[in-house]
Design brief:
Elements lengths: L15 H4 L13 H12 L5 H22 L8 H12 L6 E2 L6 E3 L5 E3 L6 E2 L4 H5 L13 H20 L32 H17 L1 H16 L20 E3 L5 E6 L5 E5 L2 H13 L28 H21 L3 H8 L4 H11 L5 H8 L4 H5 L6 H8 L10
Length: 412
């Protein structure tokens, strides 16, 4: 590579199934071979959790690109000053490092070999759903690194350097030497806003799903069932599709010795959890089973049919994009209904919603009527502090309570 030419990043770390067989990347200097092996070993330790692997790979990939191709250094040689420069680099990366569309890291060439995708970039700029519908396209010059993304850099690199120290490959963790992290991100004591839809919006969405199922049951009975699970049991979209670690089946619904029904799933970090199945969820399950021409009763222990079968064939759905498309069609119909009723503000707010907001909405609604610990365990939260974020105290109520504060005690 001509040193006068700007470096255009090429992907280094492939997906799980290919990374474990990868040799030394052709475009990587051999002096970084040991560094690459350690990075690969670290990433593959998370191979049983797709989401964690992907987020860790994103950060280790960016860091490796910067160390190896910008500074010409091994990762273990990085000092505190180098890390601080890297953090500033992440805040404003060169436009050549920023992509405006999500693409695979590697593609297969004519010879059947996996090679780096020329369109891939370490950083990605995007636009919201509503902006995309209005015709706005991503502009690389608009790239901004969010507070959350910036904190993830600290968290993941800290984890990585601890790994290198345990492997006797590094002597110090330069992340811990950065004393003033607030130089890079601010401490926010305000309550994190939970992305959810309003009671009116949810009522419109579920009624829309019911109407669609009535008008076109072959297509939209699954819409109604999926939306019931996402809201009623706080499921993540990844918990509805088949993956190498889990395939949701009918007999994941089972009753205990007290004849209470539970749904078992594997969530974040591949942690198995049981979710209490309410009568409403059981009714939705019976309706779905009847539509599939299965027994309209609740599943028996030997009923291992896919919970969400593909549109064609008997196999389970494996692609989350299929679920997202189904839900977006329902959202779009609900938005249309709100606009017909002249409820433009509600329609505009709903146009910003994603499928994951249904999980947030279900949790937020249930925390008002159920014990916090029960909601925490059903949602799979690691601590009650996470569940507490869903306890809504409106600004109006907060301000009203402040009016009761006095400076002087009342005379008795």
């Amino acid at each position: 590579m001509n040193s006068k030419q700007p470096y255009i990043p090429q992907a280094i770390f492939d997906s799980i199934e290919f990374l474990k067989y990868d040799g030394h990347p052709a475009h990587l200097d051999i002096k970084f071979n040991e560094d690459f092996k350690r990075g690969k070993q670290f990433l593959l330790s998370y191979k049983n959790n797709d989401a964690t692997f992907n987020s860790f790979r994103r950060e280790i990939e960016r860091f490796a690109q910067y160390c190896w191709f910008m500074l010409k250094k091994n990762m273990r040689e990085m000092k505190r000053d180098d890390i601080e420069e890297y953090l500033l680099f992440c805040q404003k990366p060169p436009t050549l490092w920023i992509g405006n569309q999500s693409v695979p890291r590697f593609v297969v060439n004519r010879d059947g070999l996996r090679i780096p995708n020329k369109k891939w970039r370490p950083f990605l700029v995007s636009v919201s759903k509503s902006e995309r519908k209005d015709g706005k396209t991503p502009n690389r010059r608009d790239y901004q690194l969010s507070e959350k993304a910036f904190r993830e850099i600290f968290t993941i690199l800290n984890c990585y350097y601890n790994f290198l120290i345990q492997q006797d490959f590094a002597e110090i963790n330069p992340i811990l030497q950065i004393k003033q992290k607030n130089r890079f991100y601010r401490s926010d004591q305000t309550k994190t806003k939970i992305r959810r839809i309003s009671e009116l919006q949810w009522k419109t969405v579920i009624e829309t799903a019911e109407r669609m199922a009535k008008e076109n049951p072959d297509k939209h009975e699954r819409t109604l069932f999926i939306i019931s699970l996402l809201y009623g049991m706080y499921l993540r979209i990844s918990e509805l599709v088949s993956s190498p670690r889990w395939t949701p089946t009918m007999n994941d619904f089972a009753k205990d010795h007290d004849k209470n029904w539970w749904f078992t799933t594997a969530g974040k970090d591949n942690k198995e959890r049981q979710i209490a199945a309410s009568p409403s969820i059981l009714s939705a399950l019976k309706r779905w089973r009847a539509h599939l021409k299965l027994s309209p009763t609740l599943p028996l222990p030997n009923d291992n049919a896919p919970l969400i079968p593909a549109m064609r064939g008997n196999n389970a759905v494996t692609d989350t994009s299929h679920i997202r498309k189904i839900m977006q069609d329902c959202f779009d119909e609900a938005i249309f209904t709100l606009r017909k009723k002249k409820l433009e503000e509600d329609a505009q707010e709903l146009s910003q919603a994603t499928v994951h907001w249904l999980r947030h909405t279900g949790i937020s609604d249930d925390i008002k009527i159920r014990p916090r610990e029960h909601v925490r365990d059903d949602a799979g939260h690691s601590s009650s502090s996470i569940t507490d974020k869903y306890i809504d105290i409106s600004l109006k109520e907060r301000h009203a309570s402040a009016k009761k504060k006095i400076l002087r005690p009342i005379d008795i």
